Amino acid sequence: MRRAFIGLAFVGNAFVLSCAPTTRYEAPSSLKSYAILVTRHDSLGRGIAEGLRHRGFSVRDHVRGGSGPTAYLFAFEFRELEPSAVMWLHVRLADTRTGEILAGVSAPIDSLGPTDADRARAIVDSLAASPVVRPLVSPP
Questions:
Q1: Lower Cβ count inside 10 Å, N or C end of the chain?
Q2: Phi and psi (nearest 5°) for 94?
């Protein structure tokens, strides 16, 4: 009985290990090697997605499992608490497998232009100009 249990455990472990990937994930060295996932459906998100496509990036609007390297675009606004109360726009591209920030833009919203189209253009120009060889944030 004991030998049968050990044999069954060995076969089970061998099966699990055979399903494990043999290589570890290597992040691409170029931002253009990533598919960019833009899930924002507002005018700024659409403008950024269109601008990235125009610059030759592969852009998607939904998650697709089993695909190649993907970078998620997320953006948020932050208002300072000081009397000047400047509103900042922060945009980041993060590797969906590692969570590492690949590229980012932070600027006062007023400095990016008066319309969402102008802001999207400025963001795309900044993101496309930053060649990513190494992630901006490395793991501890």
A1: C
A2: -125, 140
Pick the CATH number of 25-129 from 3.30.160, 3.40.1000, 3.40.30, 3.30.420: 3.30.160
Q: How far is CA 11 from the centre of its chain?
A: 39
What is the DSSP secondary structure assignment for residue 96, as one 8-state letter? T
d(CA 23, CA 72): 23
Place of tokens 């963001």: 123
Q: pLDDT, tens digit, for every residue of 29-58?
A: 788 889 999 999 999 999 999 999 999 999
Distance between CA atoms of 118 and 115, rounded to whole angstroms?
Answer: 5
CA proximity to 113, closest of 50, 44, 46 = 44
Contact status, residue 66 vs residue 89, Cβ threshold 8 Å = no
Structure tokens at 10: 């060995």
